[in-house]
Amino acid sequence: MAGDLGRRVAVAGVGIPLGVGLIYLGGWTLTVAVGLLAVVGTRETYGLARARNWRPFEWAGLALAAGLILAAGVQGSYQAWAPSALALIILVVFGSLAGAVFRRGPEGDPLLAVGTTLLGVGYAALPLAFAVFLRELPEQMAGMPVSGWSATHLLMFPLVVTWLGDTFAYFTGKHLGRRKLIPSVSPKKTVAGSVGGIAGAALGAALFAFLFLGPDAVHTLPIPIAALLGAVLGAVAQVGDLAESVLKREAGVKDSGTLLPGHGGVLDRFDAIYFTLPLTYLAFPFLLI
Question: Which of 121, 208, 210, 259 is 20 to 30 A from 106, comparing alpha carbons?
Answer without folding.
Answer: 121
